[in-house]
Amino acid sequence: MAWAGNQTLISHFVLLGLFSRSPLHLFLFSIIMVMFLVALSGNGLMILLILTDSRLHSPMYFFLSWLSLMDLMLISTIVPRMAADFLMGRGSISFTGCGLQILFFLTLLGDECFLLAFMAYDRYVAISNPLRYSVVMNRRVCWLMVAGSWLFGLVDGLIQAVFTLRFPYCGSQEIDHFFCEVPAVLKLACADTSLYETMIYVCCVLMLLLPFSVISASYLRILVTVLRMRSAEGRQKAFATCSSHMMVVSLFYGAAMITYMRPQAYHSSKQDKVVSAFYTMITPMLNPLIYSLRNKEVTGALRKLLGKCPCGGEALG
């Protein structure tokens, strides 16, 4: 610990975690570990299918492969640490470790915000202007969109990590959360954080509402285009693709907005933990399931991959 005036500054935090040692919480912990394994295998399989099947070498699946990679990294930033703390009965984390967790988490969160917006724009161009789709969404544009997502996410993560840890922290070391999330960490600051909270709110407007506005506008235009389609099969295919994406968007943005766009006074530790679990564990697990179960091209690629495996060939035969 260090001294500042008459206050003792703490040198590390203690994460209280998501669970106690009760039988119910042990059961819930087991469920989360199953979800973690499903997320790892599901997103890993999605990346493998997109890389190996030529039918999935299109902009939509290019973005989807990056979404799967981001989900893999996001859940791996949070769950292994949380599981280790729970199993070993400790939750101590250094200032540096907490700062790195904030940086990685917010970078990946920001990445997904913008990537989902670019995915919505991709669907808008594909459905509303199919003849120019290959020209507008060329390889260079797709790579620029992905690079832009990472850049915006990294800038947001760096700003919030640096500014959060610049505050003096004294008194309690206990963060009532299962990872270093900014609103939970700021509760321990022994300084006025109101100006910084305003800055976080402005950042969230840019990082959440701006991409969400692009998504909403894209899907409004898509809806108008789809309703004008004469082909029932075309309408059905467009609705199937877009409804999957909208489901992912609603789950992800809804949880993120509840956490980062509410005033600090309205934050409850229990509610924050549940909402955070939603977009750090549940959404990364559901994303590959949502996109694969409702997508004939992905399920076809999976059958093709299983057919190449000796065990898969015997099962299919």
Automatic annotation (TrEMBL):
SUPFAM superfamilies hit by this protein: Family A G protein-coupled receptor-like
Main location: membrane
Locations listed in the record: Cell membrane
Domain of life of the organism encoding this protein: Eukaryota
Keywords: Cell membrane, G-protein coupled receptor, Membrane, Olfaction, Receptor, Sensory transduction, Transducer, Transmembrane, Transmembrane helix
Positions of the G-protein coupled receptors family 1 profile domain: 42-291
GO molecular function: G protein-coupled receptor activity; olfactory receptor activity
GO cellular component: plasma membrane
Family that this chain belongs to: Belongs to the G-protein coupled receptor 1 family.
Protein name: Olfactory receptor 56
